[in-house]
Amino acid sequence: MKLARLGVYAARFFTLALCLAALFSDFLSPGPASEQNLTRVYAPPSRIHFVDGQGVMHWRPFVYRCELENPLDLVYRERTDSPRPLEFFRQGYRYSWLGLIPMSVHLIGGAEFHPLGTDDLGRDILSRLLAGAQTSLIVVAAGVCIYGLIGLAIGSIAGLMGGWVDATLMRFSEFVLALPALYLILALRALMPLRMPFWQTVLLNVGIIAAVAWPPMARGVRGLIFQLRSAGYVEAARSIGCTRRQILARHMLPALPPFVLTQAAVAAPIFLLGEVVLSFLDVGFRDSGESWGTMLRTLRDPRVLTDFWWNLTPLLLVFATLFCLNIVSNRVRIERDAIKI
């Protein structure tokens, strides 16, 4: 029991840390996510030193300049004669925090400093991971909101109206559940333009995933509405002449948020995984600095898996995030069921 509780705390801490990293992504990035440097293709992660080649201790951490020793095999060698001190709270490229406050201060950086190495175009992987975290959390937040609204609307209509309306909506939800989700998502995405602005891409991807994920939410809301229809206070409201709209707005909807929020938390990993899959298949985000899925495209080259292992970092981060989101959502569901009992 203690180990399980420790796992829940660790998952919550990781999720909170990821949210903070996404919120301050530009501040934590050593450089622009989309900046290319073709002289630093597949450069390994920078090694931070405190002791130089002569055994002298330095109070400020530094890195050595890496030069390309073998262009054919992309082998780099540190030049111990050129230490480059790292700078904290340094001035760098300009950005707008939350799109409102112009800033140019970065936590740490330096010449040719790449904590997680570079990719096939010499772009800094850490900067791209932070930018991708921001995109992924935007997709998850927008996704659960649209998912909740669609499920709440369809479930409320089915539960309140009953009859043929309820039967039609529930049969349609069963039809959507029976469809192969991945193929349906790819088919819907193929009908849309491939190149679109960032926010249009976010809304399109989220809308497509929500279009095939809403049935569990709608069916759950419908069941709750059916239960509330026979409640005493709802019968009393109906007896004094309240309309269906008034009964739904004043007496039924206030009882739904616990279930809706729990179901939305359970669906959060679906939107993250859906965005990663779409971007990896080259039908989601197009810019490689926008998404974890686009970063994973480099893994199509078998040599990346064997020689440039640091490019696996996005894959590990996706697995860790999905794992933690599942733990947190399951904990939310358990706590909700405990409150019911």
What features would you describe in this structure?
The chain has 2 domains: 46-116, no CATH class; 129-340, MetI-like fold (Orthogonal Bundle), CATH 1.10.3720.10. The chain is built from 13 helices and 5 strands. The chain is 58% helix and 14% strand. By secondary structure, the chain is of the alpha+beta class. A 3-stranded antiparallel beta sheet has the order 1-2-3, with no helix packed on it. Strands 4-5 form a two-stranded antiparallel sheet. Helix 1 packs across helix 13 (313-340), helix 4 packs antiparallel against helix 7 (215-229) and helix 7 packs antiparallel against helix 10. The model has no long low-confidence stretch (mean pLDDT 82). The two termini are 20 Å apart.
Mean pLDDT: 82
Flag low-confidence runs.
Answer: none
What is the H level of CATH, i.e. the homologous superfamily of the largest domain?
MetI-like
* CATH T-level fold name of the largest domain: MetI-like fold
Structural class: alpha+beta
User: What is the molecular shape?
Assistant: elongated
Number of alpha- plus pi-helical segments: 13
Number of strands: 5
Head-to-tail CA distance between termini: 20 Å
In the CATH classification, which architecture of the largest domain applies? Orthogonal Bundle
Please estimate the helix content. Answer: 55-70%
